[in-house]
Automatic annotation (TrEMBL):
Entry-linked CDD domains: MFS_MdtG_SLC18_like
InterPro entries cross-referenced by the UniProt entry: MFS, MFS_dom, MFS_trans_sf, MFS_Transporters
Annotated organism of origin: Paractinoplanes rishiriensis
Primary localization class, coarse: membrane
Keywords: Cell membrane, Membrane, Transmembrane, Transmembrane helix, Transport
Cell membrane keyword on record: yes
Membrane topology: Multi-pass membrane protein
A cellular component annotation (GO) from this entry: plasma membrane
Cellular location(s): Cell membrane
Full protein name: MFS transporter
């Protein structure tokens, strides 16, 4: 495949776009399971340790809009290099933290840098890739990220076995530093948009006002998608514990679900490019909702495995979906700022899903929580059908839902 005047092909994006992203997500994936353990080691209670881990999500939410503004002023490449330059000391602070407050602040900064990296890649692909390949480009970006966060904990676990909890942070330092080095040394790919002159940049408030209807409609859909995706990560282990399954069995079931998820990212993108975004969005949300609705019927390891496979199938079909829809509706003027706001919708949903499960479980039961998430899945499917247009490949800078 070769480049055309309309944009780049996927093969050209491999070394310069997907490889650094895979390395970056692998590095941060290595520390994801050990942040809670580090907080406990520093004397935090389980509740405080969970709050410290949640600071990463808060960092992603609070960092999205500033990231969009930075990208509009400095360009994607410089934004990623700055993100890496801040992520390295943040990981170092986690490694050396002697107090839980310092650990929490470092995890918050780490979430902000991850957000900046993600918005930069999203903005670049929106502008660089041919419209007929956009969904495949976005789903592949999501896929390499999932592969990284899947492999990272295994590398982190090996390091922990040799050097204790701090070993995972060493893996993260190496991964993030290597990703930044790749961005710095690899040649700049065509279509890497230059910084926009200050006089030509719309104000953030204007961008948000001009796209308010899109954020109120499809943005709610992105929020629900994020909530459904993150809910399965919480409710599957909790249900396994309730069934009395041992941690190894629960981990195996969860891993099988993740494997199905990873295998589907490219077929999902191809489906969206050929037939339209609805063909992935509606089935994905319906499957995730159905899987949560069937969860109360899982009374053993086999039943939980079936539900987990169904969740993996639904989540895999949604690979790259939020990024693709965001790219479709992003405006030509103020695109980076809009995509920063768009990512907030998704991050709020990702943080809200586990909170919803915890709140409903505390008030009622885990079964009620599963049914509540199932209802959210059906609502999301309906909203996606209503607000996503049927066209397979809208042009860059497309209009909002009509």
């Amino acid at each position: 495949m070769t480049a055309t005047a309309d944009g780049l092909t996927l093969r050209q994006l491999g070394p310069t776009i997907y490889l650094p992203s895979a390395v970056y997500s692998t590095g941060l994936g290595a520390v994801a399971p050990v942040i809670v353990l580090t907080a406990v080691e520093l004397g935090a209670s389980p509740a405080v340790a969970a709050l410290v881990a949640g600071m990463q999500g808060i960092g992603q939410i609070t960092g999205s809009l500033p990231a969009g503004m930075l990208i509009a002023r400095a360009g994607e490449r410089r934004a990623m290099l700055l993100s890496t330059a801040l992520a390295v000391p943040a990981i170092g602070a986690c490694l050396l933290a002697g107090h839980v407050l310092l650990l929490g602040a470092a995890v918050l900064l780490l979430g902000m840098t991850w957000s900046a990296w993600g918005v930069a890649r999203h903005t670049y692909l929106t502008e660089a890739v041919r419209p007929d390949l956009r969904a495949r480009a976005m789903s592949t970006l999501g896929g390499v990220g999932r592969i990284g966060t899947f492999l990272g904990p295994f590398l982190g676990a090996a390091a922990v076995a040799g050097w204790g909890l701090r070993g995972a942070y060493l893996v993260a330092l190496i991964g993030v530093s290597l990703a930044g080095l790749l961005v710095l040394l690899l040649p700049t790919v065509p279509h890497d948009s230059p910084p926009v002159a200050a006089a030509d940049r719309p104000r953030l408030r204007q961008v948000l006002r001009d796209n308010a209807r899109t954020l109120r409609t499809l943005g709610i859909g992105a929020l629900l998608i994020g909530a459904l995706r993150s809910s399965r990560q919480t409710i599957l282990p909790l249900w396994g514990v309730g069934l009395g399954l041992d941690p190894a069995t629960i981990g195996l079931i969860y891993g099988v679900s993740g494997a199905i998820d990873m295998l589907l990212f490219y077929p999902a993108g191809r489906l969206m490019d050929r037939h339209g975004r609805r063909w992935a969005a509606v089935p994905a949300m319906s499957l995730l909702g159905l899987a949560h609705a069937l969860l109360p019927l899982a009374n053993g390891a086999i039943g939980l495995t079936v539900v987990a496979l169904l969740m993996g199938l639904g989540n895999g079909l949604s690979a790259g979906l939020v990024m693709t829809i965001g790219a479709d509706v992003s405006p030509a003027a103020g695109r980076a700022e809009f995509l920063g706001a768009w990512q907030i919708c998704n991050h709020v949903g990702m943080g809200g899903g586990p909170v919803l499960i915890g709140a409903v479980t505390a008030v009622a039961s885990l079964t009620a929580a599963a049914l509540a998430v199932a209802g959210a899945g059906l609502v999301a499917a309906g909203l996606m059908y209503r607000w996503i247009g049927p066209r397979p490949a809208p042009p860059v800078g497309g209009a909002g839902p009509g």
